[in-house]
């Protein structure tokens, strides 16, 4: 592989006009496609294999025209102090609001509070339910404006009015912090390279890659039903890996220049060596993201595949456009150590003023690695204990999906949620819909009544509506109001209790009972994600483990990489629980409301963090293996790997953290949580696992770290990540025979 990539790098360097033209054409094509594509509709949230989804599909079949997937709104009214909603003036205001809402072109129905038993027992709160023909994301702006105008007119009449439901659903915004993240990345690149030109290359290529990826997602959003969160995720990961991959290759290019090579040759060798690490690091990220398909949640699969496509583009751009741009930059990209005067540093070979010339001072990476190999056990224990302590909050992890109750208190959706809880009880915000399929029953009406009677006798039930059959009389819906809030354990227990009771009724009558609704759907999603976590972990870690065996030609190094990842991801989950569930530092992170952690967060973090963690593992450890294969002793190879790779990996980690942290300012709670989780996970993995635990373990293992059975060595393909095939006969030399033999043993 190194030889192929070496030729590719030289070709891109020579044919830079052609390469640049191709990428600009692709960016233009994707941009035109995005601009001309129809607006994205609703991203269907189906959960195949769950009871809630089965019931939802049955409703669409047995209740045609009911717009089961249409948007809903609850306009909640509260009377002024000392008044009631049944007072004549307040009643007239509500009636006028209902009439105005019913005139909307996309409105399917509006339920009058006074005829639908939607007034609280104390008479102070009432609500009108609005049903639309289309989903929340497909509603026209004029329809949303009409909803808000009707609510405002009722406010002007003296009532407190708030609007809940998904009718006012908005596209999430990331805020200015995203730009700050990119600015931090730019500063880190300038400090790393000491050159504006060299620092600009990774930023430019990353932005082009993200532009192609996000524009392609936008162009396909309507056809593939991709949600807005999909493009945000692709942007988040694409920016991070795009900058990092380009950083790796530019750094290696400068190191090759420092060894006296011509620029075209240096570009070829940079792509052949660092580019090989980029390919395998990118493959691990792609495997982790595409592997999300095993969860069998279409939305999650689409998010993973879209982000994986953006990562693939980032890899291709790093391998081709970076050497092309290096050709354009020419002498403005200087060799390593020759940073010019941008940061006040002297050029390579120039003694600093008033100080005698002497041997170069060891860099921080070299000094740190030397310390670790002298005290490996102490460093290892300190790192493991520290991550273990950070992971402790993960034992209290509570999972759920966000609803209006998790919205900031400044939003009308959250205020409507609180008013409904005040007037009708906390369970009113999460009603359960029970669907009774009596097609196989001899007495459907009796079956409906039996199910309703069984549910009324269960603990935790506040109200049960009479069965509402369809026109055919073979299916009915029953609405159940729990006495607990939607995200509580009590509500989850009630759902299971209803399903158990339905099983008893089915045995007697032949009628099948299904529980659905947003609350039941959330419960089923959480259970499905929990059940899929272990298979997903085995699949992703297993495939990446095999890939790393090929890269490192070792058993213990990939095993150590996987175990270190588990430490970092558990510590990151602990941090997420502490901030978003317990409320630690919530004000600093802009978390207005604490609550359960998003259900997909553990499995998502496992996938994404594993892929990103392997970036640093591959880049750092391949330099160690390269030094070992070229004849250095194991301890010295660790130090050499840090000498050449620590600065770059540190810069890459800081950049990735800055990019992810930039999304903490998003208005979408899911994006905010993902941004924080990935940023803290990169911190733990890069600075604790890869910078401390990895060299400590390698120092303790010594030569055994690179052990590989002979039969496996013969069976594995030689991908030559360390670029041995690129070395000339004079460069190869003869390293210690025992070291070379050990690699093959």
- The count of strands amounts to 11
Overall form: elongated
Kindly report the average pLDDT value: 82
Give the class from helix and strand content and strand pairing: alpha+beta
How much of the residues is beta strand, in percent? 5-15%
Helix content: 55-70%
Number of alpha- plus pi-helical segments: 24
Query: Quaternary arrangement of the chains shown?
Result: single chain
Q: How large is the radius of gyration? A: 30 Å
| Low-confidence regions | 345-358, 732-745
Major sheet attributes: 5 strands, antiparallel
Cα distance, first to last residue? 23 Å
Structure report:
- The protein has 745 residues and is an alpha+beta fold.
- Helix content is 62%, strand content 7%.
- It contains 24 helices and eleven strands.
- The strands form three sheets. Strands 6, 7, 8, 9 and 10 form a five-stranded antiparallel β-sheet that branches. A four-stranded antiparallel β-sheet has the order 2-3-1-4, with helices on both faces.
- Strand 8 and strand 9 (475-482) form a beta hairpin.
- The longest helix has 35 residues, at 518-552.
- Mean pLDDT is 82; it is low at 345-358 and 732-745.
Summarize the topology.
Blueprint lengths: L1 H13 L1 H21 L14 H12 L9 E7 L9 H15 L4 E5 L13 E8 L8 H16 L3 E6 L11 H17 L2 H29 L3 H31 L4 H28 L7 H32 L34 H11 L1 H16 L7 E2 L11 H13 L7 E6 L6 H13 L4 E4 L3 E2 L5 E8 L6 H21 L2 E5 L1 H35 L3 H26 L4 H4 L7 E2 L2 H29 L4 H28 L7 H33 L8 H6 L13 H4 L4 H8 L1
Parallel strand pairs: 5-11
Antiparallel strand pairs: 1-3, 1-4, 2-3, 6-9, 6-10, 7-9, 8-9
